[in-house]
Structure formats: structure tokens, C-alpha cells
Amino acid sequence: MADAGSPAGDGIQAGAARRAAILAAMSSRLQPPAASFIREHEVQVGDLRLRAGMDRPTEIEGWWLAVLWVADEEGIVPCRVVAPAAGPPPDPPHVRFGSLVSGGLSGFVLEDGGRQQLRLRFPVPPADEGRPWTAPLVVQLAVRWEPARAAAMTPSKLADVALAAFRRAVETVHRP
Questions:
Q1: At CA 170, angle to CA 109 and CA 24, rounded to 5?
Q2: Which stretches of 35-125 are assigned E, i.e. beta strand?
Q3: Domain ranges of the chain
Q4: 162 vs 6, which has greater pLDDT?
Q5: What mean pLDDT comes out for the span 139-168?
Q6: What's the CATH class of domain 31-174?
Q7: What is the pLDDT of residues 49-94, one digit of tens each?
Q8: Can you spell out the DSSP letters for 7-47?
Q9: Distance between CA 115 and CA 98 in Å, rounded?
Q10: How far, in Å, CA of 43 to CA of 167, rounded?
Q11: What is the pLDDT of residue 45?
Q12: What is the dihedral of CA 158, 118, 114, 151, to 10 degrees?
């Protein structure tokens, strides 16, 4: 058995200190940037009940821009909370979420040259680039809406469509 003064004991203490630092970092989560622009959506991930929200969208040069997040009572959750039960997949979260949100908004997004006019990015990088699923689950969404759909819907309804697609993507990512 290693005592506290031995090299093995020092390694145990260093491991305990590292775990404590990780737990402290996990408890100091980012907070949502604002109150949600529209009613938050409940997100069901296994036994967890989370909530998805978004800030007030803006429009710049024909692109509709919004920040969306998933939070619990402590703040924005890390992506790994919604990763499949078997563990985070090898693809980084933006690959998984991008295709799911894009599919969820199919028919609402303008196509130009056969490509959907939708961009999704994670604005806050993970603390460890080698572990992308530790990034906070907050995304920036940029969409060019299909003009006929956008003309027939209120800004709140468009926001609700975007938030619903994001919520479904989060719930889908968790399923095996």
C-alpha cells in the first residue's frame, strides 16, 4: 500500500486533485445568455428532464440567426449529458447535431444549388479539444428560411419550429 509521501501516493493525490478540479468545473456551468425568447421546450433524455431555449433571433443579410441551448437547474449542460448511453460517438457533436437539425427543418429551409441554407456551430469550445463532447450544449443556428414558409409564419412560430427541431435532435442523439 502506498503512503502519502511515496511516488504512488503523490499520484493518487494528483488524481484526486484532478477529479476535484473536473467536478468543480462541471458545477460552474455557463448560464443561458438570456431568458428564452419563446416558451422553453422540455427535453426528455433518459430519466433527465431538461429544457431547451433560445435567445431573440436576429436577421442579417437574409440569414436568421439565433443561439439555442439545453439547460437544467445548474445551467447549460455539457453535450456528453445527451450522448448515447453507450458513450459519446466518435463523431464530434456538431456533425451529429448538424444533420439532425437540418433534417428536422427540412421543407422550411431555403435550398440554393441543391444545398440547404443552414449553418450550425458550437460557439464555446470544449475545455479539452480531444474530448469534443465536453463542450456546453449551446449552438448558433443560421438559417435562410424558404420564403413562402417565412411569409406565412410569425417570427415566434418560426422560432418555435427551429427550437422544436433542435429539441428533437437532442433527444435523438441520446438514443442508441
A1: 130
A2: 41-45, 48-54, 58-60, 63-72, 75-76, 111-112, 115-116, 118-121
A3: 1-30, 31-174
A4: 162
A5: 97
A6: alpha beta
A7: 999 999 999 999 999 999 999 999 999 999 999 998 787 778 899 9
A8: HHHHHHHHHHHHHHHHHHHHHSPPPPSSS-SSPPEEEEETT
A9: 13
A10: 6
A11: 94
A12: 20
**56 DSSP assignment:** -
Residues 114 and 29: their CA atoms lie apart, in Å, by 39
Q: What is the pLDDT of residues 15-36, one digit of tens each?
A: 555 544 544 444 568 999 889 9
Helices 93-104 and 155-174 pack at an angle, to 10 degrees, of: 130
Residues 63 and 143 sit within 8 Å (Cβ to Cβ)? yes
Give the integer Cα–Cα distance in Å for 55 and 76: 14
- What are 61's three cell numbers? 443579410
Q: In the prediction, which pLDDT does 6 show?
A: 46
The three three-digit cell numbers of residue 75, written as one number: 445551467
Cβ-Cβ contacts under 8 Å for 83 (sequence gap 6 or more): 89, 133, 173, 174
Percent of the chain at pLDDT > 90 equals 73
CA 127/CA 133 separation, integer angstroms: 10
Q: Is the pLDDT of residue 1 over 60?
A: no
